[in-house]
Automatic annotation (TrEMBL):
<feature type="domain" description="Hydantoinase A/oxoprolinase">
    <location>
        <begin position="201"/>
        <end position="484"/>
    </location>
</feature>
<dbReference type="InterPro" id="IPR043129">
    <property type="entry name" value="ATPase_NBD"/>
</dbReference>
<dbReference type="InterPro" id="IPR008040">
    <property type="entry name" value="Hydant_A_N"/>
</dbReference>
<feature type="domain" description="Acetophenone carboxylase-like C-terminal">
    <location>
        <begin position="498"/>
        <end position="663"/>
    </location>
</feature>
<feature type="domain" description="Hydantoinase/oxoprolinase N-terminal">
    <location>
        <begin position="4"/>
        <end position="180"/>
    </location>
</feature>
<dbReference type="InterPro" id="IPR049517">
    <property type="entry name" value="ACX-like_C"/>
</dbReference>
<dbReference type="InterPro" id="IPR045079">
    <property type="entry name" value="Oxoprolinase-like"/>
</dbReference>
<dbReference type="Pfam" id="PF19278">
    <property type="entry name" value="Hydant_A_C"/>
</dbReference>
<dbReference type="GO" id="GO:0017168">
    <property type="term" value="F:5-oxoprolinase (ATP-hydrolyzing) activity"/>
</dbReference>
<protein>
    <submittedName>
        <fullName>5-oxoprolinase</fullName>
    </submittedName>
</protein>
<dbReference type="GO" id="GO:0005829">
    <property type="term" value="C:cytosol"/>
</dbReference>
<dbReference type="Pfam" id="PF01968">
    <property type="entry name" value="Hydantoinase_A"/>
</dbReference>
<dbReference type="Pfam" id="PF05378">
    <property type="entry name" value="Hydant_A_N"/>
</dbReference>
<dbReference type="GO" id="GO:0006749">
    <property type="term" value="P:glutathione metabolic process"/>
</dbReference>
<dbReference type="InterPro" id="IPR002821">
    <property type="entry name" value="Hydantoinase_A"/>
</dbReference>
Length: 680
C-alpha cells in the first residue's frame, strides 16, 4: 500500500511517499508561475500509479493574499453596508494599540482586497429572526451585477445582513449573477460561513471567492496531471486544521485550505508525540521564509474557530493556532539606519535563494551565515547532491554597508535571527499560559535542526525533539490525519429547558447535512458534536465544548451547561456556576479514519559507539572562539547512541547542529532528543 502527500511551500515543494512502512522523501523547488508543475514533478520522482491517496497542502492561496496577487472579485452586499470591508472589526493588534500611525495592511487607503468600485449594494433587508423586512429589489440587483460584468470580475462574493438566519435573498442573487455573468465562481455567505458576526462572515466569503478562482484552475490541472500519470486513488486537500477533505469538498469551500501547509506540521507533531509518549509539545517549523510556532496540549493541537491571516483579515474556519515569525533559513540579512544588522522579514525565496546556492543571489541570508560558521558543509549539502558556494557567502556579507567587522556581521546575523525566533516561541507560550519547562520542543522544517538547538538556552523547555525526516515533516503530517466533514450553524439561545427543541433540531439538521455530504462513508464515520457558548454578558465565547449525542432533552441541556463551566475553568482559571449560559454556535463533525504513516523502529546498538564521518570546525560563535567537534551521518546512528556537542548530524534534506554544552540521544524511532549536558 502506497500513500503520497505533498506540501507546497513558498520556496520548496516537499513530497513524501510511504510504502509498506518505508518512508521515501524528495524535495523540488516550488514553481512560482505554476505550482502544479512542481507538484507533478515531485509525483514523477516518487511514482503515484499505485498510490491509494494523494494528500495535498499548499500555501499558494495564502501567498496570493499576503502579496495581493489576487483575482478581481466583486462583492454584493445590503444597501448601506458597502464599506464593511474597509471598516473591519476596529480591533488593533496588541503591538499597535498605542501607535497613532498604525493602519491595517489592507483597506481603501492601502491595498484593499476588493476596491470600492467593485463593492456593490442592493436594496434588501433580512431581520435577525430570519423574516424578511425589505424584499430583494431584483431590478436594482441586475443593474449592479451588470456593473461588475463590465468590470470583468472573475468571481462574485455575496454577503447580506443577517443572511446566516435565512439565505433566500443570497440564493436569488446567485441565480441572477449566473444569468447575467455566466458560469463564474459565486460564493454565498450563508453557505460558506453561517455565523452571526457580520464582518468575519463577509471577510470569509470574499476570501473564499478568491480561493475558488485561484484553486479552481489549479486543482483541475493537478487532477488531470495525476490521471495522466496513472493515479486512480483519492486526491485530498488538507485544511487549516490539517483535517483532510476530498478535492471536491475542499474546492466547494476553498477558504478552508488557505493555511493548510503550516497546520500539517502541528498534526504531524501530535501524531509523532503520541508514538514516543510526549503529549505536551511546542512545535517549531522553520522554513525558508518564516518560522511557524504552535502548541500541542495533552496530545491535541490547540484549535481556533477562526484564522487571522493579517490583522483583521479573518477566515471563519477551524484552524490550528499558529504564530508566524518573519525569520527562516532564507531570511535576508540587511543593515539598519544606524549600521546595525537586521534579519528578515524579507526572504531570498527559491529563486535566486541564498547567495551560497550559486544561483545569482547577492544578499546574505541565515543559511549563508550557517555556511560561514561551519554548521553547513559546502560539500555535503542535500546528501552530497549539491555543493554550496562558500566564496559567494563571503562576498554577500562583505557587501553589507556597515562599519562592523566581518566576524561581527556573521555573529550578529546568526544571533539576531535566533532571537527573533525565540521571541515568537515565547509569545505563543505566554498567550496560552503554559509552562515551557513542562513541554518538549519539536523541531522540524529544513532549517529547524540547523538553527533551533542554538536557542535552547533562551527558551527553557524540557528538551528538544527532532523527528525523522524533519525537512519534510509537514508533508508527513498529511499522512497522520483523518478525513473530516464538518457543518456548523450559529444559533444564539440560552441554555435552559426552553432551548431543548431548537438545539435538538439544529443538531439533527447539521448531522443530516454531513451525512448527505459524505454519502456511503457515513456508515464508518464517527460523529462528534461540539458547541461554542458564553456567559450572559460576555463578548467572546468559549469554543469546542463537547455536546451529548442523541436526542437533546432537559438532562442533556444541564450536561452542556456543566461542561461549559468545566471547560471555562480549565481555560480561564475561574468558574461562575451561578451565571446563565448562552450558546452561540453548534457544530457537527464526521471523522473517517484514514491510513497513517508509520515510523519504523531503529535497531539498538549492541557494541561500540557511533563513528564520525569527518571533523567539524566552528567559527564566528557568540563568544568569538573557534571550536572543534565531529560530523555524523544520521543513517549511521542507532537507538541509544549519544553524541556530545559541538557536533553536526547530516541527512539528505536537513542538518542538525548540537551546540557545545548539549547532548543528543537517539530514540527508538530514530528521533533525536537534545538536552543540556548538565541534565544528563
Amino acid at each position: 500500500m502506497q500513500l503520497v502527500s505533498v506540501d507546497v511551500g513558498g520556496t520548496f515543494t516537499d513530497i513524501v511517499s510511504v510504502e509498506d512502512g518505508v518512508i521515501h522523501t524528495t524535495k523540488v523547488p516550488t514553481d512560482l508561475v505554476d505550482s502544479a508543475r512542481g507538484v507533478l514533478k515531485g509525483a514523477d520522482e516518487v511514482g503515484v500509479r499505485d498510490a491509494l491517496v494523494f494528500n495535498h497542502a499548499s500555501t499558494a492561496g495564502l501567498n496570493a493574499l499576503l502579496t495581493r496577487n489576487l483575482p478581481k472579485v466583486g462583492l454584493i452586499t445590503t444597501i448601506g453596508q458597502r464599506d464593511i470591508l474597509d471598516i473591519g472589526s476596529n480591533i488593533r493588534p496588541h503591538e499597535a494599540i498605542a501607535d497613532p500611525r498604525w493602519r491595517r495592511s489592507f483597506g481603501d487607503a492601502n491595498r484593499p482586497l476588493v476596491p470600492r468600485y467593485l463593492r456593490r449594494t442592493v436594496p434588501e433587508r433580512m431581520k435577525a429572526d430570519g423574516s424578511v423586512f425589505l424584499p430583494l429589489d431584483e431590478d436594482a440587483a441586475r443593474r449592479e451585477i451588470r456593473v461588475l460584468g463590465r468590470c470583468n470580475v472573475e468571481g462574485v462574493a455575496i454577503g447580506l445582513l443577517n443572511a446566516w438566519t435565512n439565505g433566500v435573498h443570497e440564493q436569488r442573487l446567485a441565480e441572477l449573477v449566473r444569468e447575467e455573468l455566466g458560469d463564474i465562481p459565486v460564493v454565498m455567505s450563508h453557505a460558506v460561513s453561517p455565523v452571526a458576526p457580520e464582518y468575519p462572515r463577509i471577510s470569509t466569503t470574499v476570501i473564499d471567492a478568491m480561493m475558488k478562482v485561484i484553486y479552481g484552475d489549479y486543482s483541475g490541472r493537478l487532477q488531470n496531471g495525476l490521471s495522466e500519470r496513472g493515479f486512480t486513488g483519492s486526491l485530498n486537500f488538507g485544511d487549516c486544521a490539517a483535517m483532510l477533505a476530498p478535492v471536491e469538498t475542499a474546492m466547494d469551500r476553498p477558504s478552508r485550505v488557505v493555511f493548510s501547509g503550516p497546520a500539517a506540521g502541528t498534526t504531524a507533531s501530535a501524531h509523532f508525540g503520541r508514538l514516543i509518549g510526549r503529549g505536551n509539545l511546542i512545535c517549531v517549523d522553520v522554513g525558508g521564509t518564516s518560522t511557524d510556532v504552535s502548541i500541542v496540549l495533552d496530545g491535541q493541537p490547540i484549535i481556533n474557530t477562526s484564522l487571522e491571516l493579517e490583522p483583521d483579515m479573518v477566515v471563519t474556519t477551524l484552524s490550528n493556532e499558529i504564530a508566524s515569525v518573519g525569520a527562516g533559513g532564507g531570511s535576508l540579512i540587511t543593515v539598519g539606519p544606524g549600521g546595525e544588522i537586521q534579519v528578515g522579514p524579507g526572504s531570498a525565496g527559491a529563486d535566486p535563494g541564498p547567495a551560497c546556492y550559486g544561483r545569482g543571489g547577492v544578499q546574505p541570508t541565515m543559511t549563508d551565515a550557517a555556511v560561514l560558521m561551519g554548521i553547513l558543509s559546502p560539500e555535503n549539502f542535500l546528501g552530497g547532491k549539491a555543493t554550496l558556494d562558500y566564496a559567494a557567502a563571503v562576498r554577500a556579507f562583505e557587501s553589507l554597508d556597515t562599519p562592523l567587522s566581518f566576524e561581527q556581521r556573521v555573529q550578529d546575523a546568526f544571533r539576531i535571527g535566533l532571537h527573533n525566533i525565540a521571541e515568537g516561541i515565547v509569545d505563543i507560550v505566554i498567550r496560552n499560559g503554559v509552562d515551557p519547562r513542562e513541554f518538549s520542543l519539536v523541531i522540524f522544517g529544513a532549517g529547524g535542526p540547523m538553527l533551533i538547538p542554538s536557542l535552547l538556552d533562551m527558551v527553557k523547555v524540557r528538551e528538544a525533539v527532532i523527528p525523522p525526516h524533519p525537512g519534510l515533516f509537514s508533508a508527513i503530517g498529511l499522512l497522520s490525519s483523518d478525513m473530516v466533514f464538518m457543518e456548523s450553524q450559529s444559533l444564539m439561545i440560552p441554555l435552559d429547558e426552553s432551548a431543548v427543541y431548537a438545539i435538538d433540531a439544529v443538531f439533527e439538521k447539521l448531522e443530516q447535512k454531513v451525512r448527505d455530504e459524505i454519502g456511503s462513508n457515513s456508515s464508518v464515520a464517527k460523529f462528534v458534536r461540539t458547541f461554542d457558548a458564553r456567559m450572559a454578558g460576555q463578548a467572546f465565547e468559549t469554543a469546542f465544548i463537547d455536546a451529548p449525542d442523541g436526542d437533546i432533552g432537559t438532562r442533556q441541556i444541564e450536561e452542556m451547561v456543566a461542561k461549559f463551566h468545566a471547560v471555562y475553568e480549565q481555560r480561564a482559571g475561574n468558574k461562575f456556576e451561578s451565571m446563565p449560559v448562552e450558546a452561540v454556535t453548534f457544530r457537527v463533525q464526521a471523522v473517517v479514519e484514514m491510513p497513517k504513516a508509520e515510523f519504523g523502529a531503529v535497531p539498538r546498538r549492541t557494541e561500540g559507539t557511533p563513528q564520525p564521518i569527518g571533523d567539524l570546525e566552528l567559527k564566528y560563535l557568540r563568544d568569538g572562539e573557534k571550536r572543534t567537534g565531529n560530523r555524523f551521518e544520521r543513517d549511521d546512528l542507532l537507538d541509544g547512541d549519544v553524541i556530545h556537542g559541538p557536533a553536526v548530524v547530516h541527512e539528505r534534506l536537513s542538518t542538525t547542529f548540537v551546540p557545545a554544552g548539549f547532548v543528543l540521544q537517539v530514540g527508538s524511532l530514530g528521533e533525536f532528543v537534545i538536552e543540556l549536558e548538565a541534565k544528563k
